[in-house]
Amino acid sequence: MTISTIISNAAPVGSVRGNRSGEERRGTVAQDAAARDRVSFSGQAHALYAADQSKKLDVIRERVRRGYYLDGYVTEQVVDSVAREIEAAMGR
Question: What's the pTM?
Fold first, then answer.
């Protein structure tokens, strides 16, 4: 059977309608979405995140120990990064 034969044998498709008014549907969808949109992380995920943060702090400690942050260029980069974070936190 060819595609044209299949299409010609198909019944017309009507519009799909729910059993509620448009206003009712919009309100219910918003309420349902608010109730469903939640994310939770397992204890293992929290532990992995904490371990990753700990590794990052270990790298920073080692850099401080070696004097990495005493370099003028590095200091400027750190200050600029902290300033951007502060501005973002303040909503600027």
Answer: 0.42
